From TrEMBL:
Location in or out of the cell: Cell membrane
Name the record gives this protein: histidine kinase
Keyword list, A-Z: Kinase, Membrane, Phosphoprotein, Transferase, Transmembrane, Transmembrane helix, Two-component regulatory system
Transmembrane feature ranges: 12-33, 154-177
Residue ranges, annotated region (Disordered): 394-458
Lineage of origin: Bacteria, Bacillati, Actinomycetota, Actinomycetes, Kitasatosporales
Length: 538
């Protein structure tokens, strides 16, 4: 705020105010001490003078020797509490103060009495009364004008000196504080510089608080400030990437939904215009309407599934139960052979069951998507191989996949969905379909040695590998092959290339089960490897 003083100025003024209080206390104490010291010195001097004057008063009855200039001396006879002045005497015109101290001295019970009094017309005096003999009191009065003048000069010197020291302290302190607080000003400038950057499209903050000067506290503040900027920088990058992906997702989803909707509307118009035509033509248009509606329904189902898997606070659609993975894969293979008779498929599995807790419908969807991906992106006649095995591993945690058994949907935490490791514990070794066919003898199932024996009783990974002998996936596209709406060939028609959600669904469902999916290989041998952790199987 413009009306408020800066921190350095306020600190300097605060130090100045504190110093002013200290100077005032010191000056007052020094002044009082000096005045009392001078009065004690004057009283001692009066004592020495009265020693001589007492002898004079005893010998002559009065003091004949003249006192110091400005001093007064008087001898009083005190009877019945009343003091009577002996003359001749060197006294002021008003002797009330001298008579009062002479009357008070016998009653004090001491040999002498000292007090300060103001004599009218003369000023302040120090009065000292001492006993000469019984009933006779000697009173001396010394002026305090010199003492008061010295005190005033001392006060003047103190005021001037302390004022100069205070001004110098404030100015020097302001300069020192400004230099010491300069790193804080630099931090403020850095913060203002950050506000001048447009962070809507960029996720980077090219501003940092630098400098080596400053106290350890300033260094700690600078380090904490830079650490905060690093965190903000990372958050902005994540936000910018999330917004970019969201915009692309919305655009792709809108485009994908627009195509079947336009087809539905077009076929509906054709159906209306062809109402008077032959029943065969109406049935053909109605079949195309149903096909486009079914295609749009599949797309919406995939989008809904991905949205539910991504949500952290909703229940993911997993219903876990004890399932034989080998039997599940064989059923998926049978369905694939029925739908794609032009593509030879071989299945390799162990002789026994591979039972684990999973959602059979969702894992079946994963296997179907992988097989469909192999059929869609490879020419007719391409060999496809599926292998089911078990990989024992001591590093796999002893936990079941996310979810509960029965019909209650399982809650999937965000860590499971978004932070699953991208690297599988074991890299898949690509095997050519030709070699696989040679080992398995073409169509049908083969029960090889993998996954058999005592290894099935421990912890490890249930592994499903889908390999095809197609043209392969370019290395540049493998890192994004599981992104939503991503296609290796953007020009591929949607009737053939799909919506681009199949592999995204595969990855999300694999991560929801606590597993991973990866792609390896090259032209002639592309392998998708699904790994699901399993423990305590029967």
């Amino acid at each position: 705020m413009r009306g408020r003083l800066r921190l350095g100025t306020r600190l300097a003024l605060g130090v100045g105010a504190l110093s002013l209080v200290v100077f005032a206390v010191v000056g007052t104490a020094l002044t009082m001490y000096m005045r009392q010291y001078q009065e004690r010195q004057l009283a001692a001097q009066m004592k020495l003078v009265q020693l001589v004057q007492t002898k004079d008063a005893k010998a002559h009855g009065t003091v004949e020797r003249r006192p110091y200039y400005g001093w007064y001396t008087a001898v009083y006879e005190v009877r019945g509490g009343h003091a009577e002045l002996r003359r001749p005497a060197d006294v002021p015109a008003d002797t009330t103060a001298l008579a009062a101290v002479a009357e008070a001295q016998p009653a004090s019970g001491t040999t002498h009495l000292t007090r300060t009094a103001k004599i009218p017309g003369e000023g302040a005096y120090l009065l000292r009364a001492c006993s000469v003999e019984r009933g006779v009191v000697l009173v001396s009065a010394a002026p305090l004008a010199d003492v008061r003048a010295t005190t005033r000069r001392l006060i003047t010197v103190q005021v001037v000196t302390f004022a100069a020291a205070l001004a110098a302290l404030v100015v020097a302190g302001r300069a020192v504080l400004r230099r010491g607080l300069r790193p804080l000003s630099d931090l403020a400038d850095t913060a203002h510089d950050i506000t001048s950057h447009d962070l809507t499209d960029s996720g980077r903050l090219p501003v940092r608080a630098d400098g080596r000067s400053g106290a350890p506290e300033i260094e700690e503040l600078r380090s904490a400030f830079n650490t905060m900027l690093e965190h903000i920088d990372d958050s902005l990058v994540v936000r910018a990437e999330a917004e970019r992906r969201l915009r692309r997702f919305v655009a792709d989803a809108s485009h994908e939904l627009r195509t079947p909707l336009m087809s539905v509307r077009g076929y509906a118009d054709l159906f209306q215009y062809a109402a008077a035509h032959s029943p065969e033509e109406r049935d053909r248009h109605l079949a195309r309407l149903r096909a486009e509606a079914a295609r749009m329904g599949v797309l919406l189902d995939d989008l809904l599934l991905l949205a539910r898997l991504d949500a952290a606070e909703v229940e993911a659609p997993l219903r876990l139960e004890e399932t034989d993975l080998v039997e599940l894969v064989r059923r998926a293979a049978d369905a694939f052979r029925a739908a794609h008779p032009d593509r030879p498929l071989t299945v390799t599995a162990g002789p026994g069951e591979l039972r684990l807790r999973l959602d059979p419908a969702r894992i079946r969807q994963v296997v179907d998507n992988l097989l469909t991906n192999a059929a869609v992106h490879t020419p007719a006649g391409t060999r496809v191989a599926v292998e089911v095995s078990f990989e024992p591993s001591a590093e796999v945690p002893a936990r079941a996949p996310t979810g509960v058994s029965g019909e209650t949907p399982a809650r999937v935490p965000r860590q499971t969905l978004r932070q699953a490791p991208r690297q599988a514990p074991h890299r898949a070794v690509a095997r050519t379909p030709a070699a696989a066919a040679g080992e398995r003898g073409g169509h049908g199932d083969s029960r090889g040695p993998r996954g058999s024996g005592a290894a099935r009783g421990g912890r490890g990974l249930a592994v499903v590998r889908v390999t095809d002998a197609g043209p392969g996936i370019p290395a540049a596209d493998r890192g994004r092959i599981f992104d939503r709406f991503y296609r290796v060939d953007e020009a591929r028609s949607r009737d053939r290339g799909g919506s681009g959600l199949g592999l995204a669904v595969v990855r999300s469902l694999a991560e929801a089960h606590g597993g991973t999916v990866e792609v390896t290989g090259g032209p002639g041998a592309t392998t998708f490897t699904l790994r699901i952790p399993t423990t305590g199987r029967t």
